[in-house]
Amino acid sequence: MFRRSVPIALIGICLGAAALPAIGQQEDAGQAPEGEGNAAGEDTQQGVEPPSITMVHYGPGDAGGSLASLYPDQALELGQGENVFTGLLKRETVSERHGGVLVVAPSGQSPDQGVAGAVRTQLTDAGWLTLSIAQPAEPVADLPERVLEPVQPGAGDEGNDGEETAQNGNDAEGDSGSGEDQGGDEASKPPDMTIRVAQDSAAPTRDDEWQQRATDRLAAAVNVLRNENVGPIALVGVGDGADLVLRYVSANGATFPPGQFGMVWVDARLRPPFSDGLVAELGEGYSVPVLDLYDRDLQSERAEKRSAAARRGGFSAYTQSAIPIPRGGQAREQRRVSARIRGWLSDDLESTGGQ
């Protein structure tokens, strides 16, 4: 009796376990009709609201708006009217001031981004007041003129006497399926037209208006440094910021006292006319101190051309150095570029021991 009761108990347990999924299916099946009654897109759970996501986008003209919240003690509003922009002024962290440094970031980058951010934050430990600015937004090319030349009715239907259209459009006596296929082919055929793109639709360039806005930014920033009585001033251009520095210096270099002014080019990307005629633009025997830094990990023909031009032109205070120049997020923390600039500043620019 005992041996027979064991299998019977096992069978009962198995049947009870098999009944549990069936009960769950019945409960799910009972809930299904309730879900089918909901309107499309309606939440099936009462009282539960979908998550809300808010996205905020800063356009090119407003990208610097967040700098005031990130650095409320450093952000400065410069310029006037529509040309107002935000710069970052960071004072020296030592008792003795050696001068001021104006940093021009590459186009499309923040004044606190990449190499520009590293230079502006790290030179203050060596007694240099720094002011970092961004370039104006790049000009956007106008949409090219489009001339549409519609084809006259019947222009592409030589030899068609109109019977074909009637047969394709009205096929009551023929097969109805064939007529529908032909009608669909005719409807899907795009209309004939010619689009002629204007030949003068060139890529966006930095026109005179953009150059004026950019040099006005530099002028406003230089005036801030002068009002601070910083003494010697160095203009540091990163990437194509070096081109903007050159354009400002070529027009306003005479306004700086002798021996109190210099330029630093970091990974310079110059545009014409400086990329092709550096000596012609700056003149023979150019005596303003220049430090030209380029990435030693890259074979730069542009750096070699600049060095050769400076030798031919007899630039008396031109120095070119090859150092690692990191890209991306690492550039913000790297110190080699800032250390090289700091050593050059102490050797080539006179210190006034000012405020």
From TrEMBL:
<feature type="signal peptide">
    <location>
        <begin position="1"/>
        <end position="24"/>
    </location>
</feature>
<protein>
    <submittedName>
        <fullName>DUF3530 family protein</fullName>
    </submittedName>
</protein>
<feature type="region of interest" description="Disordered">
    <location>
        <begin position="150"/>
        <end position="192"/>
    </location>
</feature>
<feature type="region of interest" description="Disordered">
    <location>
        <begin position="27"/>
        <end position="51"/>
    </location>
</feature>
<dbReference type="InterPro" id="IPR022529">
    <property type="entry name" value="DUF3530"/>
</dbReference>
<dbReference type="Pfam" id="PF12048">
    <property type="entry name" value="DUF3530"/>
</dbReference>
<keyword id="KW-0732">Signal</keyword>
